[in-house]
């Protein structure tokens, strides 16, 4: 009879199951102290615990097996589970029950550092209703993203299972008691927009078909005012807000502004929005005059605002400055697929 964890084992991750195997016979009885329950396979050769083990607890396993000749063997094993100096909880975006756009990655944020990355990824499973190629990428020891190779297919049902409770994720750190999670969300209609600084337009494609071509004015082509080229992802909408240049370092007495706007759709963390700009309607479609936002007429901005959802794509082209992870918390599409996995 073989028992795992082995006799005398210490600091056993409580997320690992107890297994008992009979070699050359069948199991007739398995008992684990603390009332830990388990299941037997059909051949009665392997027993696996199903109840969760507790942190910092000593367990005793007693097992009895019988061979074909009726001879009985008994094994007893004791081990102790680890005591967690820190626990790790995985916060996940998108949230369960939400609908997001085709550019939204799965983002997992850990509240303590994860250094055993391979173990963490081995116990986080992404499943999709539509076959989807994708992979994980670490952005830090507290943040990892999963994105598809191409934009999601509209209507895809996505689930993430994190089986991390009691698993060692760093020295002294284990998945918290609530780290086993299932997150389910849906990919909405495909909204992909292309804002072109050269043609001063923003084309909006809905489910792959051109729905609107808007005259637009992007960032003025001078240092500090460019709209950054690259794939942006919608993260937030505000019906009304005040644009304040001081939030990204441009003082009011240095050419900055504090301006109320309507229909503001955020596409980065560096002050880039698609929003209504009635003051630049004459320039929209003709020249770039903004401080980095994509200016639309009030009517066009309102239309875009109504359909926009978190995860929608706004791809900016035609400017000399690239979007990077410093300007957005969704930099996933700025990284070529060939460089994605790390």
TrEMBL record:
Gene3D superfamilies named in the record: 2.60.40.3710, 2.60.40.3780, L,D-transpeptidase catalytic domain-like (2.40.440.10)
Chain coiled-coil ranges: none
Membrane spanning stretches: none
GO biological process annotation, one example: regulation of cell shape
Keywords on record: Acyltransferase, Cell membrane, Cell shape, Cell wall biogenesis/degradation, Lipoprotein, Membrane, Palmitate, Peptidoglycan synthesis, Signal, Transferase
Stored Pfam families: Big_10, YkuD
Superkingdom to which the source organism belongs: Bacteria
CDD domains, sorted: LDT_IgD_like_2, YkuD_like
Cell membrane listed as a keyword: yes
InterPro entries: Big_10, LD-transpeptidase, LD_TPept_cat_dom, Transpep_catalytic_dom
GO MF assignments: acyltransferase activity; peptidoglycan L,D-transpeptidase activity
Domain L,D-TPase catalytic intervals: 191-324
Active site: 275, 293
GO cellular component, one term: extracellular region
PROSITE patterns: LD_TPASE
Pathway field: Cell wall biogenesis; peptidoglycan biosynthesis; Glycan biosynthesis
Protein name from the UniProt record: ErfK/YbiS/YcfS/YnhG family protein
Species: uncultured Mycobacteriales bacterium
């Amino acid at each position: 009879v073989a028992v795992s964890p082995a006799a005398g084992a210490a600091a056993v991750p409580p997320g690992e199951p107890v297994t008992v195997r009979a070699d050359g016979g069948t199991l007739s009885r398995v008992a684990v102290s603390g009332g830990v329950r388990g299941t037997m396979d059909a051949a009665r050769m392997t027993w696996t615990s199903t109840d969760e083990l507790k942190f910092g607890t000593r367990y005793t396993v007693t097992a009895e097996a019988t061979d074909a000749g009726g001879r009985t063997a008994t094994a007893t094993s004791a081990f102790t589970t680890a005591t967690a100096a820190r626990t790790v909880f995985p916060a996940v975006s998108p949230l369960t029950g939400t609908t997001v756009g085709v550019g939204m990655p799965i983002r997992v944020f850990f509240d303590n550092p994860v250094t055993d990355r391979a173990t963490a990824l081995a116990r986080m499973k992404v499943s999709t209703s539509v076959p989807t190629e994708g992979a994980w990428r670490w952005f830090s020891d507290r943040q990892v993203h999963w994105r598809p190779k191409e934009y999601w297919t509209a209507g895809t049902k996505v689930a993430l299972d994190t089986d991390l409770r009691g698993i060692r994720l760093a020295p002294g750190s284990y998945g918290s008691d609530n780290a086993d999670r299932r997150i389910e969300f849906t990919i909405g209609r495909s909204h992909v927009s292309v804002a072109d600084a050269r043609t001063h337009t923003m084309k909006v494609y809905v489910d792959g078909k051109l729905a609107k071509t808007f005259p637009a004015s992007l960032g003025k082509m001078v240092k500090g005012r460019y709209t950054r080229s690259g794939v942006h992802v919608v993260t937030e909408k505000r019906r009304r807000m005040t644009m304040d240049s001081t939030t990204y370092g441009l003082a009011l007495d240095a050419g900055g502004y504090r301006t109320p706007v309507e229909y503001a759709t955020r596409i980065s963390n560096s002050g880039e929005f698609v929003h209504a700009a009635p003051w630049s309607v004459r320039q929209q479609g003709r020249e770039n005059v903004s401080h980095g936002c994509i200016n639309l007429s009030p009517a066009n901005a309102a239309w875009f605002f109504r359909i926009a959802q978190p995860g929608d794509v706004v791809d900016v082209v035609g400017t000399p400055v690239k979007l990077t992870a410093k300007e957005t918390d969704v930099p996933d599409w700025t990284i070529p697929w060939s460089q994605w996995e790390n």
